Amino acid sequence: MTFELASVLVLLIISLALFVLGKPRMDVVAVLLVIAMPFTGLISVSEALKGFSDPSVILIAALFVVGEALVRTGVTQWIGDQLSLRSGGSEAKMLVLLMLFAAGLSAFMSSTGVVAIFIPIVLSAARKVHIPPNRLMMSLSIAALISGMLTLVATPPNMVLNAELIRQGYDGFGFFDFSLFGVPVLVFAILYMLFMRRFLGPGKQASTSASLRPRFRDLLERFGLADRIARIAIPAASNITGHRLDELGLFGRDGVAIFALERRRRHGREFLLPQAHEQIVANDRLIVILSSPSFDLDGYIALHDLQRCASFENSTPLPNRDVGLVEAMVPPNSPLVGKSPVEANLRTISELSVLGICRSQQPVTGDVANTQLKAGDTLLLSGPWRTIQRLQEHRRDLVLLELPEEAEEYVPERKRAKTAIAVLAAMVLAMTFGVLPNAQIALITCIALGVFGCIDLPSAYRAINWQTLVLIAGMIPFALALERAGGVDLAAATVLDTFGESAPRVVLGTLFLVTMTLSLFMSNTATAVLMGPIALAIAKGMGASPEPFMMCVALAASTAFMTPVASPVNLLVLSPGGYRFVDFLKIGTPLALFTLLVAVGLLPIVYDF
Predict the structure, then answer these.
(1) Is there a cis peptide before residue 24, judged by omega within 30 degrees of 0?
(2) Sign, Cα dihedral of 373, 379, 380, 385
(3) Given a cut of 90, is residue 118 above it in pLDDT?
(4) 248 in a domain, yes or no?
(5) DSSP state string for 64-120
(6) What sections of the protein cross the membrane (predicted)?
(7) Most buried residue, 86, 281, 316, 344, by most Cβ within 10 Å?
(8) d(CA 564, CA 581)
(9) For the chain, how many structural domains are there in total?
(10) How far is the C-alpha of 207 from the C-alpha of 123, rounded, in Å?
(11) To 10 degrees, what angle do helices 75-87 and 417-433 make?
(12) pLDDT tens for each residue of 506-528
């Protein structure tokens, strides 16, 4: 063994140990490797830094931006809504839909981002139908991991291995080449989790702590309004059909605040902001809050030929994607002091309605609309989230207090959802047919999303997971150093000497097991960077095509089911699901073995050795 190879192996062992310990962070370890590798004499400083300009790194960064655009336009939230709606309260149906949605979406954006988005969705949906979250969270992480076996851009290891193939002069993988192996694994995983969820235990509760931030229901109860929410249907025969909302004069005259307008569309119901000029049409529904206890709602309904509808469930009393509730305090120097909400014309000036007033910690029970405000009063305001956010920047008139949890569900660019989907579809088609290099297509996609208003620059920069990019960029030159030191050839020769005369499936199985084992203790991206050159060397030594060996590494790198530290998506569901280390081992081991069988069974059939 040469000094150069020994030094590289020492760096590898130290890096693996630090990855397992988790201290320092993996991206810091990657930076330390970039600093240390030139001292081995195997690569120059410029070569050590070359990973930061690698096309796969640029592609991954661009895909983080694409994923954020889907969040900002509400595409991901629509998927969450469909999950709750279409499951119909059935745990089995919810599990199947959850895994299909999570895997399908993760196939085109960061699986870590998808899991982070879905965790609150799953918690909310599980709470509504009284399902323990631990029976769903494991399925979420498994589906997100399997998504790495569906498309080229689903996970960084796929792109890293594809880039290595192209660097070596091969054509690389097609966009959906992975699906031949991933789809059978996903189908089996869904059936498997339908059976295995019972072993996660119905009595085990998630270990999440209650949020300290208030929810809409908490705010309404604090101001004594929880029982004053009503939904009013407007039939075609009503005498207010065709009128504008401001012509009703409900707030100024009767102390009734219109929270939102519910309107039937082709694809379901939509909640509209109660704009003064909005015209009421037949079959609309008004969601109102009775700020004045003296208002005779039943008499108003009878007078105008309206109908009273069932109210919202207690857990979600109001729509909250575009319209918000928030507390704000009246400061001593505010121009609102001494004026009532009607006199201050708050609704017209700021688009905010005063639903309730708390004075000395007690709700005001009289006519809120005509109550003179005092310094120190706390107001319950409703209005567009964009207006509420602007209120945070201007504290002279009102001081905004803590935002409720529902503020996180605000979608700033909902009207551009169809545009985002169209741009995403164009990106997938371009990558499928190889119109341009994938990194270039992804960058063009980011520019298109920005031009069409689906994302802005600050959001784009915040969306990028710099830790992941630094990790990948730091590990790429390490693979080059290992190759120049002879480590890749040594590893390949060891495998060939041991299994070279065996059937190709034995060699593939060995490669799969080694890769999967490494990915249990270190980043699957780092594992792919290390194992890719070894897989290529094994293929060359056998005189075989490199594609099945590289695909084997890609599939094994996504088989990180067995430990919570094997992947960020496992770590994300660990606490909300209340899981232990043994839960991942118990559920993940049979699934990993099945994936091994699929890879070893199908690879020699799909690819010509």
Answers:
(1) yes
(2) positive
(3) no
(4) yes
(5) HHHHHHHHHTTHHHHHHHHHHHHHTT-HHHHHHHHHHHHHHHHTTS-HHHHHHHHHH
(6) 5-22, 28-45, 57-75, 95-123, 135-155, 175-195, 419-436, 468-486, 506-536, 548-567, 587-607
(7) 344
(8) 6
(9) 1
(10) 12
(11) 100
(12) 889 999 998 888 777 666 777 78
